[in-house]
Design a protein that fits this description.
single chain; Diaminopimelate Epimerase, Chain A, domain 1; two-stranded antiparallel sheet; 5 helices; globular
Length: 339
């Protein structure tokens, strides 16, 4: 047997978006808080590259590393790794992490509901999981405080002209635009065109619309774009496409995106505490969202969705592997030559 280190990954998706969870084989990065542990991982970046780049990963995957939490009120901590960044929060990844923790027995499961708190880099997230026969049927997460920074702001976008966007924080900074005004019906066949428009909007918003989290200046700048069906009335299910860097569609309805949308609609006076909307992704998966309460500059939203464990992988770290941190090619990874 060759001398090689192994990393154990539980494969999972929420609403179609892959959010694999590393459960063994990686020493916790240093830090007192999960945010500090995330910063240590970011400074090195070898684990994210190993997990997400080819030949072990792909542009359509995320990975989550379980890490210790210093908080007595939290069952676990986790660091989220996405194709080009370390987001402070992710709804679909949180749903995957909670499902894996419970279904793998890392955290005890109680039926019909398990309540636990998790520490994400952005802060503490409360989770309520509906459980039956040893399986997690759905997860509702009470997200971090979400709020709007810009409403109906004019944005000059290359190839699109002047459009209007909201910029809101739902765990990540979003630019929110009207998909219908841009000529999209949010159908799977439009995926490439949606991504092209979204990446142009993201670049413009980063350059023209400043946004910094009031409690953590390290969380700054629009990093993700939502193109959505216009709001009609509370309780509706709205089509939604979220463009993730480096230019692909989130397969899920996107929990942080729904949180940002709820915050923007509340700031405009269109949604009140207790009211809800749902988002449907381009592949038809749905996340449910509601406003739990007002807090500080915005709201606390709750997002519900389901995740499914799809398998288990043992990934090997071979000292002779010529691609220990993987590789990128532009045929599958847009903008790979700039990564």
């Amino acid at each position: 047997m060759r001398d090689r280190r192994s990393i154990t990954v539980v494969c999972c998706h929420a609403g179609g978006e892959v959010g694999n969870v590393v459960v063994a084989g990686v020493e916790p990065p240093p830090g007192e808080t999960v945010y500090e542990r995330m910063e240590a991982l970011r400074a090195d970046d070898s684990l994210r590259r190993f997990l997400l780049r080819e030949p072990r990963g792909s542009v359509a995957q995320h990975a989550n590393l379980l890490v210790p939490t210093g908080r007595e009120d939290c069952a676990a901590g986790y660091v989220i790794m996405e194709p080009t960044e370390y987001p402070a929060m992710s709804g679909s990844n949180t749903i995957c992490v909670a499902t894996v923790l419970l279904e793998e027995g890392i955290v005890p499961m109680s039926e019909p509901e398990t309540v636990l708190r998790l520490e994400a880099p952005a802060g503490v997230v409360e989770v309520r999981a509906r459980c039956r026969a040893g399986r997690v049927e759905s997860v509702e997460l009470e997200n971090v405080v979400s709020f709007a920074a810009h409403l109906d702001a004019p944005l000059e976008v290359e190839g699109l002209g002047t459009i209007r966007v909201d910029v809101a924080f739902g765990g990540m900074w979003y630019a929110l635009a009207d998909a219908y005004a841009l000529g999209f019906a949010i159908e799977p066949s439009e995926a490439r065109e949606l991504c092209d428009a979204g990446e142009r909007i993201r670049a413009a918003a980063r350059a023209q619309l400043a946004c910094v989290h009031p409690d953590n200046p390290g969380i700054a700048g629009v990093s993700i774009v939502q193109l959505a069906e216009p709001f009609g009335e509370p309780g509706a299910t709205l089509r939604n496409a979220v463009v993730v860097a480096p230019g692909r569609l989130d397969r899920s309805a996107t929990g942080t995106g729904l949180s940002a949308r709820l915050a923007a609609l509340h700031a405009k006076g269109k949604l009140r505490v207790g009211e809800r909307i749902n988002h449907a992704s381009p592949i038809g998966s749905v996340f449910e969202g509601r406003i739990v309460r007002e807090e500080g500059p915005g709201i606390v939203p709750a997002i519900r969705g389901s995740a499914f464990v799809t398998g288990r992988m043992e990934l090997y770290v071979d000292p002779d592997d010529p691609f220990p941190q993987g590789y990128l090619l532009t045929d599958t990874w847009p903008g790979a030559d700039t990564q």
